[in-house]
Amino acid sequence: TSKRLYLGIDFGTSGARYALIDDQGNLCSERKRAYPQTGNGKSRATSWKETLFELLNDVPEEYRPNVASISIDGTSATTLIINRDNGEVLSGPFLYNESFPDALPTVLSIAPENHTVCTGSSTLCKLVSWWELTSSSNRESAILLHQSDWLLWLLHGVYGVSDYNNALKLGYDPEADAYPRWLASQPYQYMLPSIKAPGTPIALLKEDLRLQYGFPKECVVCTGTTDSIAAFLAARAISPGKSVTSLGSTLAIKLLSLVRVEDARYGVYSHRLDDKWLVGGASNTGGAVLRKIFTDDQLVTLSGKINPSEQSPLDLYPLPKKGERFPISDPNMMPRLEPRPESDVEYLHGILESIARIEAKGYRLLKELGATAVEEVFTAGGGAKNDTWRKIRERVLGLPVNKAIQTEAAFGAALLAMKGARAKTYV
Ligand code: ADP
């Protein structure tokens, strides 16, 4: 068969997964693997590398000759310092949530106020912390790569390529599509990767790998993105005004907008997606509070008894602990979980409806800040399976709300691979 297939690989926090899709976006094959145990001489980087090759090996042999392209997403701000001559890991990986407050004063002194790099876990803090602790001879051959850049590098062998989604927390300016002068003038500027749009072809798959696994000669390796953007892409909310609300432990909103929106007070910022912007905000409300009060089984039975077309009189603000950022910026805000009615059905109704109001307020805030108005909402996360909640949210938001068909980041990475394979030009 001459059917073209596209391979996306997601490197998440606990494991990695691939998704193989066809031109119509049908999922042909997928597989998940946990990372092998680190320690006893096995580094984290090695465990990722092994998982990458295990997943390539998991792709059924009959599909492999049709794989036109590969892309990879990784956790944002996960950073490695690599020897540019041989690809050896010199330092790291520094994980997405690892903080380097020692580097913060330096970063604050060079970056504009409230810039995304101004937090101890930003990629730039990781770079600056390493730089300040490293001798000049060891600095010479070093280059910075994000998790997905390095894994992609293992496949294509071209040094120093990244994408503007991963590079945002490094300080890259996605609007100018360049490193800003305050960063490009630093002594470590030579370590910064060159930046492409996500889903840009980088190079052909290395010949030895192609022959070893049986991928075709034309198989091209494409730039990736971060795991949360890949998960957004999976939902295929592809026109401005479409959005994805993720109802997991927290409530996270991602809206496709024609306008870039940033507001540090609310933790709102935008990632570039070609000629559009992905505007995001995250509330501390969400499933974590639900789980404190009800079991998942109770959520199902109680939800079944709620009439979603009826408005709940309860006005709650469910938070797992003190403090909220979006759509209300108040580090001292207290959870409001009372009054608790005698009926659990009424209580859950009030909680679900109150969370829906927070969601609606979130979308209103993004619009006030200048984003494209939301028109349609897709839902991902554990709360997406609750159809009663979906109906409540449709009423409260006044918008169509649907469960996203695909929510796996690996599927989003496969869509980026498809984009890259269809692009005619090489970088
Ligand atoms: P995480 O952010 O931890 O990845 P998940 O996307 O797995 O979260 O979602 C888990 C959350 O979904 C839990 O906090 C739980 O309260 C919530 N949840 C599970 N089942 C339901 C349900 N039927 N209705 C609403 N919420 C649910």
Description:
The protein is built from 13 helices and 17 strands. The longest helix is centred in the last third of the chain and has 25 residues, at 344-368. It folds into 2 domains: 5-229 and 410-422, Nucleotidyltransferase, domain 5, CATH 3.30.420; 238-404, 2-Layer Sandwich (Nucleotidyltransferase, domain 5), CATH 3.30.420.40. 48% of the residues are buried. It has helices at residues 44-58, 104-110, 123-133, 136-139, 147-156, 181-184, 207-213, 227-234, 287-293, 296-304, 344-368, 387-397, 409-422; strands at 5-11, 15-22, 27-34, 67-74, 79-83, 89-94, 142-146, 161-163, 194-196, 201-204, 220-226, 242-247, 251-257, 269-273, 276-283, 376-380, 401-403. It is an alpha/beta fold. Adenosine-5'-diphosphate is lined by residues 248-249, 287-288, 290-291, 296, 299-300, 381-383, 385-386, 389.
Write the layout of secondary structure elements.
Blueprint lengths: L4 E7 L3 E8 L4 E8 L9 H15 L8 E8 L4 E5 L5 E6 L9 H7 L12 H11 L2 H4 L2 E5 H10 L4 E3 L17 H4 L9 E3 L4 E4 L2 H7 L6 E7 H8 L7 E6 L3 E7 L11 E5 L2 E8 L3 H7 L2 H9 L39 H25 L7 E5 L6 H11 L3 E3 L5 H14 L5
Parallel strand pairs: 1-4, 4-11, 8-9, 12-16, 16-17
Antiparallel strand pairs: 1-2, 2-3, 5-6, 5-7, 10-11, 12-13, 13-15, 14-15
Helix pairs in contact: 8-13, 11-12
Bound molecules: adenosine-5'-diphosphate (ADP).
Adenosine-5'-diphosphate binds next to helix 9 and helix 10.
